């Protein structure tokens, strides 16, 4: 396809997270985060996705264990020390934007410090300045799946309303420090994961409590309020700031044309995706969410001013990750589970899957972009899209990865078709442009990048970076602004 639909100022790039790439977990005053107490499981079952239940016993064990083999996200790919080399490679590909996250546990290592950790801010100064030097727009995620342990120990995570003020203080530091340098911000990465991955998003780990789900939604409410206050502050500090919401969109189709399956699909879409975006982009709790709370016996403590703040300070754009789709049915007994992003999904018989069981659905991206843009009428930013694959490093330093090129080209083509449909898409930050530690399985073997990092699941290897075939393909995609896929 020759695609002439991408705007001239389209933001092509890639995205990483601090907790998977940075390493240096105990350097320059940083404290522990939830990802750094998650162990690598070499017996990982790739047929289903299982959430690791982080409990206090696991946290205490990890605090007293300095191991970086057992806890791979502590070492990451050492981006803390290699960021200049890595950013230069992104610039060589022609990135217009680079999405990265700032570690809350670096900036406020004790959670409630009177002043931020200057060494941490100096590091992020360098990362942001290096992006600008290479002509890359920095896009910063303020909280990306790296809940500081101290905020769990001291406050019980986001269930405690005190975290609103602590988060806003953290944002205040960032917005003022990077005024005029950073324009695009994401308040919370994939905020809809809170219900499925409450430990790393909310720091709520009281699984055995009878009101656990209520606790999650209470913590989520506090994040909604925090996001609204941060958005207001960002606009006041710099009117040029653009603040985005973000979900991992779980696109779903009815298994059959039975009305019951279509109704189940609608309900799944509401409580897996739309609920979160409705609050952040429309400024109110939707009717179906209130019904869900009523039917579940969930009561949310909402203080005076909360709803006014949420209503008055909605997001400037809709951010989303898109990895795989799912199917919905009113009768799931005949369906088969397969792995997916954060949780298992029912297998669609019409779709292929990668080696981890994640289904591959490029057309679903066009479908989802139209769905989201029609509902919110705000620009959409594809903040994550890719698939994990096994890669082999050849003796000559090359990596042949036609499967990655095939996956991404088909998704980018569908994104271009969505733009042709009339959807306003700001940009595309492909997930994991350089190999890093997997968020869900903590393995290195599951590789996303255009750049191969010579490190295995146990931390062995030279850590040298190698350009894969897909590196040169994406370079050409950016150079031609999506005309040559």
TrEMBL record:
Family named by the database record: Belongs to the glycosyl hydrolase 1 family.
One Pfam family, short name: Glyco_hydro_1
Membrane-spanning residues: none
PANTHER family attached to this UniProt entry: 6-PHOSPHO-BETA-GLUCOSIDASE ASCB-RELATED (PTHR10353:SF122), GLYCOSYL HYDROLASE (PTHR10353)
Presence of the UniProt keyword Chloroplast in the record: no
UniProt organism field: Paenibacillus pabuli
Protein name: 6-phospho-beta-glucosidase
Coiled-coil stretches: none
Taxonomy, superkingdom: Bacteria
SUPFAM superfamilies named among the record's database cross-references: (Trans)glycosidases
This protein's record includes keyword NADP: no
Keywords tagged on the record: Glycosidase, Hydrolase
């Amino acid at each position: 396809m020759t695609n002439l639909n991408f705007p001239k100022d389209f933001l092509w790039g890639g995205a990483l997270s601090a907790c998977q790439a940075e390493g240096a977990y105990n350097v320059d005053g940083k404290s522990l985060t939830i990802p750094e107490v998650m162990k690598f499981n070499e017996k990982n079952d790739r047929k289903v996705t299982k959430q690791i239940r982080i409990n206090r016993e696991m946290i205490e064990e990890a605090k007293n264990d300095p191991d970086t083999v057992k806890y791979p996200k502590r070492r990451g790919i050492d981006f803390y020390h290699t960021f200049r080399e890595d950013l230069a490679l992104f610039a060589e590909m022609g990135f217009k934007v680079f999405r990265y996250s700032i570690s809350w546990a670096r900036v406020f290592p004790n959670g409630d410090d009177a002043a931020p950790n200057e060494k941490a801010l100096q590091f992020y100064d360098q990362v942001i300045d290096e992006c600008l030097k290479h002509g890359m727009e920095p896009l910063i995620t303020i909280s990306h799946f790296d809940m500081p342990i101290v905020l769990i120990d001291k406050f019980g995570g986001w269930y405690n309303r005190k975290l609103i003020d602590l988060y806003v203080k953290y944002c205040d530091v960032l917005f003022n420090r990077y005024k005029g340098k950073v324009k695009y911000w994401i308040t919370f990465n994939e905020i809809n994961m809170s219900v499925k991955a409450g430990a790393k998003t909310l720091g709520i780990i009281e699984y055995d409590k009878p009101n656990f789900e209520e606790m999650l939604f209470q913590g989520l409410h506090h994040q909604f309020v925090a996001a609204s206050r941060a958005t207001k502050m960002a606009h006041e500090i710099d009117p040029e700031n653009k603040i985005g919401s973000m979900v991992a969109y779980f696109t779903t189709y009815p298994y059959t044309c039975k009305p019951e399956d279509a109704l189940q699909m609608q309900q799944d879409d509401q409580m897996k995706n739309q609920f979160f975006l409705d609050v952040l982009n429309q400024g109110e709790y939707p009717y179906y969410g209130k019904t869900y709370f009523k039917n579940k016996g969930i009561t949310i403590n909402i203080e005076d001013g909360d709803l006014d703040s949420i209503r008055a300070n909605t997001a400037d754009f809709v951010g989303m990750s898109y990895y795989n789709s799912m199917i919905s049915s009113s009768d799931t007994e005949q369906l088969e589970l397969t792995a997916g992003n954060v949780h298992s999904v029912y297998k669609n018989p019409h779709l292929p899957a990668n080696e981890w069981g994640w289904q591959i659905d490029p057309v679903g991206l066009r479908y989802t972009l139209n769905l989201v843009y029609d509902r919110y009428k705000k620009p959409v930013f594809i903040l994550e899209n890719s698939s994990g694959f096994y890669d082999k490093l050849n003796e000559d330093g090359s990596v042949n990865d036609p499967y990655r090129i095939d996956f991404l080209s088909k998704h980018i083509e569908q994104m271009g078709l969505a733009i042709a449909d009339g959807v306003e898409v700001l940009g595309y930050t492909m997930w994991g442009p350089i190999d890093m530690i997997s968020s869900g399985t903590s393995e290195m073997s599951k590789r996303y990048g255009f750049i191969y990092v010579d490190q295995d699941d146990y931390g062995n290897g030279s850590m040298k970076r190698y350009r894969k075939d897909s590196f040169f393909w994406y370079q050409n995609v950016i150079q031609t602004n999506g005309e040559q896929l």
